[in-house]
Amino acid sequence: MSEMCRVEDVHKSYGKTEVLRGVSFSMDAAERVGLMGPSGSGKSTLLNCLSGIDRPDSGQVSIAGLDLSHASTRDIAALRRTDVSTVFQFFHLLPTLTAYENIQLSLQLAGVKPAERGERVKELLEAVQLEHRAAALPETLSGGEQQRVAIARALAHRPKVILADEPTGNLDSHAGMNILNLLDELAARYRIAMLIVTHSEEVTRICGRVLHMRDGQLV
Ligand SMILES: Nc1ncnc2c1ncn2[C@@H]1O[C@H](COP(=O)(O)OP(=O)(O)O)[C@@H](O)[C@H]1O
Ligand SMILES: [Mg+2]
Q: What share of the chain has pLDDT > 70, as a percent?
């Protein structure tokens, strides 16, 4: 399968406000696509429709081989435990768990056997260069470090697609650049398709294609 996701004529309103007004695009396996546009233009809504967090009012969305228009809540939950991962602006780590435990929990939810988990967490911590912070609680980590734990967690179940919604939005420009470089390197290493919403022009360097959204439409 070379097509990783397809969005066709998606519309979505909140109350009387039409937030997505006929959005169509597709993305190939292992392709990296940037999504830029002013605040309020509908970028997060589009990502949420792709990840199954939200549902379009009309139009088709399929991702990693699943047609979300006909998928049950259970199918979508399974998809999010296997093929699709999300990374957000605020890292959403569990505050009472260490970096190591946050990543391990994700492996556990993905059904990875206990005997395998330790090795995998170690590999993921290495991949995001945080071996030395394994025992740290999120509140003792910098923003960039927290986002690296969140990325390790997002990689834990070996997804085919990562949907990243302003992953650098809460970081200074230096830390933000490091995160984009890391996503770039890991997506290439593990052949993961990635859709990144960002305001950083840097994204044009790591994405083969950049989409621009304005008032709920791709322009
Ligand atoms: N759950 C919601 N309920 C009502 N309005 C929403 C909701 N989510 C988003 N919106 C509105 O939809 C528009 C697009 O939001 P969003 O997709 O978050 O844009 P972006 O991510 O490009 O900043 C905004 O006007 C926002 O206020
Ligand atoms: Mg947004």
A: 100
The residue nearest atom 16 of ligand 1, judged by CA position, is: 42
Token pair of 130, please? 């945080």
Ligand 1 pocket (Cβ < 6 Å) reads: 14, 19, 37, 39-45
Domain region containing 212:
3-218
In the three-class reduction of DSSP (H, G, I as helix; E, B as strand; rest coil), residue 199 is classed as: coil
Residue 136 predicted with pLDDT over 90: yes
CATH number of the domain at 86, please.
Answer: 3.40.50.300
Mean pLDDT, residues 178-207 taken together: 91
Residue 1 CA to ligand 1 center (angstroms) comes to 32
* pTM (two decimals): 0.93
Residue closest by Cα to atom 2 of ligand 1: 14
Q: How far is CA 148 from CA 1, 6, 131, 178, 187, in A?
A: 29, 28, 11, 10, 14
Name the residue with the closest Cα to ligand 1, atom 12: 19
User: What's the mean pLDDT when you consider all of the chain?
Assistant: 93
User: Which residue has the CA at smallest separation from atom 17 of ligand 1?
Assistant: 42
CA of 4 to the centre of ligand 1 (A): 25
**Least trusted range by pLDDT, from 51-55, 86-90, 199-203:** 199-203
CA of 98 to the centre of ligand 1 (A): 32
Count how many domains the chain has: 1
The string over 187-206, giving b where at least 16 C-beta atoms fall within 10 Å of a residue's C-beta and e elsewhere, is beeeebbbbbbbebebbeeb
